[in-house]
Write a structure and sequence with these properties.
The chain has six helices and two strands; from the N terminus they run H-H-E-E-H-H-H-H. By secondary structure, it is mainly alpha-helical. Strands 1-2 form a two-stranded antiparallel ribbon. A hairpin with a 2-residue loop joins strand 1 (67-70) and strand 2. The longest helix has 23 residues, at 30-52. It is extended and about 60 Å long.
Length: 134
Amino acid sequence: MAVIVACITCGLFGIVLEKFAYRPLMKGKSTGLVVAAVGASLTIEYVMMLLFDSKPRAYNIDYSGDFFMLGNVTLSKTKIMILLISIGIMLLLSWFLKYTTLGRAMRAVSDKELAAGLCGINKQHTITTAFVIG
């Protein structure tokens, strides 16, 4: 449940970030977008530090029997699971960008913005969707 709430919250935050930080700068030079990205990143970081404190926190997780031996290398089953899930998500995103209409539209807007618009692709909707996915 927490993952679903986090995904929805981050998606909504992506919409707000794109609308107020990036959209006004889209027609200008790309350096403005870089500055906006750095500014947004620092703002998010410092707001989270104010809300949740910046001290490191330790979580007590029982790893007894949660290891996998591969020759002389000991790997945690949790880390292997994270790796496999990450690879799965990357493959899913790659499939989405290559084979869906929206994914192709994203690639078209990224490659040739004017040509994509002439082909009937709603540039703003596509950019906002990319921010939600990001």
